[in-house]
Design a protein that fits this description.
Layout (H helix, E strand, L loop, with lengths): L17 E5 L3 E6 L7 E4 L5 H21 L9 E6 L8
Antiparallel strand pairs: 1-2, 1-4, 2-3
Amino acid sequence: MSILNPVPREQLGTRFTHYGWFCGVVPIYVGNILDEAPLVAERNGIPEWMFSLVGHLYSGVAWCAGQLAPYRDINVPIVITGAIEPTQDDS
């Protein structure tokens, strides 16, 4: 989503319901937080390549952790920081 393709204002609070951080570095919007695979997009104004770069770095760390402890579950580090209030149209 990010700079060139921002998340539409109508989706904030409906499709994307929470603010959060990916790996403690990339600010994100999160939707469907109770699902096994939540909907995630970098916040408006954040370059898409930053999310991809941190994701690739994390996948390398997760691979190494999987080699060291193959029977452990490895979770994606997403921290939810708050809810997004739905915007109200004045029209």
